[in-house]
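Re: your question from the hallway

Yes, I did run it. Sequences:
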Amino acid sequence: MELNTTTKLTAKDFITDQDVRWCPGCGDYSILKQVQTVMPELGLKREEIVFISGIGCSSRFPYYMETYGMHSIHGRATAVASGLKATRPDLSVWIVTGDGDALSIGGNHLIHLLRRNFDVNILLFNNEIYGLTKGQYSPTSPIGKVAKSTPMGSIDHPFNPLALCLGAGATFVARSMDRDPVHLREMLKRSNNHKGTALLEIYQNCNVFNDGAFEVFTEKASKKQEAIFVEQNKPLLFGENNSKGIKLEGLKPVIVNMDEGGISANDLWIHDEKDATKANILSRFFDDVKKENHLPRPFGVFYSEDRYCYEDVLQQQVNDAIAAKGKGNLNDLLKGKNTWEVK
Amino acid sequence: MNNNNEIKKQVVILFAGDSGDGIQLTGTQFTNTAALLGNDISTFPNFPAEIRAPQGTLAGVSGFQLHFGSVEIYTPGDVADVLVVMNAAALKANIKQLREGGIIIVNSDGFDAKNLKLAKYPNDVNPLKDGSLSKYKVYEIDVTKLTRSCLEGSGMGTKESDRSKNMFVLGYIYWMYNRKLDATIEFIKEQFKKSPTLLDANIKVLKAGYHFGDTTETPMNRYEVKAAEMPKGTYRNIMGNQATALGLVAASSKADLTLFYATYPITPASDILHELSKHKNFGVKTFQAEDEIAAITAAIGASFGGSLGVTASSGPGIALKGEAIGLALMLELPLVIVNVQRGGPSTGLPTKTEQADLLQALYGRNGEAPVAVIAASTPSDCFNTVYEACRIAVEHMTPVFFLSDGYIANGAEPWLFPSENELKKIEVHFAENKLKDGEKFLPYKRNEKLVREWAIPGRNGLEHRVGGIEKENETGNISYDPDNHEFMVKMREAKIQKIADYIPEQKFDQGNEKGKLLIIGWGSTYGSIKTAVKESIEEGLEVSHIHIKYLNPLPKNIGSIIKNFEKILIPEMNNGQLIKVLRDKFLVDAIAYNKIKGMPFTAAEIKNKIVEVLQ
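Structure:
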């Protein structure tokens, strides 16, 4: 039976009959909820939406979305999605991946997808740990992380995912968190609205193997001090009652105290998503929170650029070839240029 | 001047020179010209992996063997009648390929002290002067000097002029075999249309080579090789990789599917990509991926969306694709995997041929992972075979391996090409929403072929999820149930075996259906086996030949064919792979005949083996 598409869809329409099998308390539940909530607001038909994932806890996601979906293999969701989008530009393609899936085993495909700028959305669930394989450190785990495979602490220098993505030529880079549904929903919508590859990193708590990895950013007691929410054309303010701000001295970001005299919001760094230099500096707000005078961790849209999408130009070349040579004639192709007759 | 035209039934010419000498182009041009005259042809390019190996060295020798005749030709020839060498290294590397009494045409400039040293001849030894070539007829021509003087005043430097040397040689060989220059002149015009200087220079040198034959005092014979008697119709010349590309376009066009060809450059498969990228006006989308894994997974993504997903590589790349092939067979989506085999293992022999990836195609994945496997036997057969691979992939919703190899991929032959309406129909059915109220779509429900429906995104009410995890029968939901897993493993195997109902039975290529000796071949050994068996039968030996195209599933009558022979001989360019499969399936005590030298069998080798086995 066809779904009556004139009726407005609700979040419920995106829930499948499958039991959700993440651990109780996992941050993935919140992300799933926000995605299902946002979907009806995007103006898409359910059958036009495809969720593609790789392997890992987050990659079970497609099974819980009542859309088309593929749970592919480790690290390759980005490549599967590239092939799908190249041939079906009409679809809304969402990639669900984790820090291991996207940045370790699938690192190569991620950077190449970003530079090609297919019009897809990447939801990168970062929990700084390998959950499905039961607790090894990941490429985003901090140095010294004690995990199953690193009893003496990890000696791998971690990736800074957003700096990596900007370096790869991403046209849209944003960060949100599982514990802030309002912000997450807003970022999901922004990602969807971006024409090109939207990379949304979502800080996600793994309460079993890495509980509290992001709590300084997500919990009430410290959130205002440690997290800064950036908005277009607004000054970079944070802290209790926005008592602190970020000022740019040349290319160096400096924390200033708004309570002290002689400084106003006009003196601060005004956020501009179109500014690649600022976005790069913002992505380097990646200090260890234990470091004295560290910069707060930014959330929001860091960067947004208009650039052509691979699938559009690929199709354009097909159209141009047809315009120049005419639609392919199979008999002519088989015949080739030089033939001879045997009588 | 000498104009004795001697009639020849068939001739083998081996062009050899430095890899920068344009040998492949020379050979290809002669091939096209011979084809246009109606000769039957088979060619074999043989070149080093290095693009520019040190000039003048043995490692840098590039060869192109060409067999043409007024009789049926199945191989590039066991030994050459004419050897054309541009330098000392080319002579040293190829002299054993020349028959006794054969002709050597020598660029004498390539035999100076420096070239002799690079070719590792001992000091003061020059094979042109020491009588070591007395078994052959040697014609020395200073091609370099003649080319340079021909281009004097053209404004070109010596380095530039020397690049046209191959055209002089080609012109001369055209004279020797009474060929017209037209096709090559057309080619030069096309090739150098942006550079009038090079265009004029190459045509001038080509003609100079031809006229040199007319004017020189050398007592050289001229030969004539008449058109071959071939089945009536219109022919063209075709190389294997080109035929593969055309087969893919034809299949997508007949099936009315977008062809999505995703690949990563690798020798000897890249030419398929080059060819396909020229045919975007057929809606073909080519994708040069970041690596082999991205190539195949992108192709899977395209197939999921309702396109014909194809990926191609050679052995090392196929190894990287293994996990994704497993995914495609779990998803039960159409996918064609082209393997243009080369010498292995690991990087192996990139530019040499081998058929050692059969077991990789059949078994090279984790778990019980059956896929269909079919192999082409000649350059033009690549067209039919890859077309068939597409048909099976789409109609049976499965990955299909198409095996070619470096020998037929780069080899060429005349092709009695089909017209569009002679091509077999390819049935495509996308799932439609016929669900009743409250009924759920079952993505893994199967039809009488045991094939599930292709339900592509965009169709309302058919939303479903697929994945690499074991799935419940019919619903496709994740299932770890032990009985379900066993059922699904057996179902996937049964589905592949079911394809046997939709492919032709095995036919005999030559010989009786019962007898003393049956030769079973597959892939590119076809020409050598055919020639050897033909000669053997003419000499009264009791031998038959079948050549298996469908390697999984096998045609249903293979078992009964085997039972009708006293002895079975299986020649393969590997250490014995098909023989393992046939022993396993039919408990047959077959005799293996293996060659693992990166070179195809000669017909004589197979013939000798036939005689030996029948003794």
